Fold:
Amino acid sequence: MGKLSGWRRGFKRAWPWLRYILGLGLAALAVWALSGRTGELSGATRYLDRLNWAWLLLAVASEVGSLVAFGIIQRRLLETGQVRIGIGRVTAITFAATAIANSMPAGPVVSSVFAFRQYRRQGANEGFAGWILAAVFVAASVSLALVAAAGLAIAGAEGAGFDLVWVTVGVLAAALALGALFIQQGALVLAANLLVRTSTRLLRWPKGEAATRVEAVIDRLSMVRLSAFDVISATGWGVANWVLDAACLALSFLAVGVGVPWKALLLAYGAGQLAANLPITPGGLGVVEGSLTIALVAFGGAETATVAAVLLYRIISFWGELPVGWVTWGAITWANRKSEVPTTEKALDANVAEVTA
Structure:
């Protein structure tokens, strides 16, 4: 039994790195598979050689707007706890957190720790900062499900032919149920307590100091009250986040000089983003490109032109964000170290540094 427990602990420590290596391996496999399609890739390269720079700049602006909208979700939710933060600051946090999530082993976890630390620096207590992380996830999930459902409705009968109806309806129902549960604080606290008790019984976690912190977060859940305006605002900015990102994809088609497959765009985009959330590769690397291209070509898009547009979209929305995000992270870290930090924050910084080392 002791050997089995030791093996499990070792696997848990190694899994983030193994998943990262697996992701890179899958990406390499995708490149190898595509190497046999040199005709399409060379054709896509020719499209990229004659970009329309006006449309390209609009695509970049749309992607920046998407991240700003995601930052505003956090800003609106922080304001429910009387925590004020400027749009510039919250956008910088969003850029940095996105880069961390998309490029590190266990990136989403480390990204959440980073965002949590920034909320604390802005004045949120531990319980409220944890609640914000959960609320942002719920808002993003519900709004993405709404966008995917809208895409299915626009695609009509053609979308039904790809067996996406029940998947989309199921995701929408689950997201709305999650949102409703989150708004109803009593039910949310009950579910959180049940989850913690189950985890303690089966995994023997949390316990000690970790258990105390989890209890504080649960207590905070019952203290936050969201008005109808708060819910509508957070969901609306969540939809804006996804729609602006989808607009970047549409503008990428125009930038490479081909028509936009409007009827299939939101459906393919929603399917691609849902696939990106599967814990397979960092930032959905390879998964998003493949799912978008397959869906758009299946709806009648020219294969070479679609590959070019999707590649350009990913260059802007994935690869382009990484250097900007890491530079932003460096600037935030430097600015934080210049300011006077309370003892508890120094301890938290040390913990984050240990995680990211």
Notes: The chain has one domain: 2-356. Residues 2-356 form one domain.
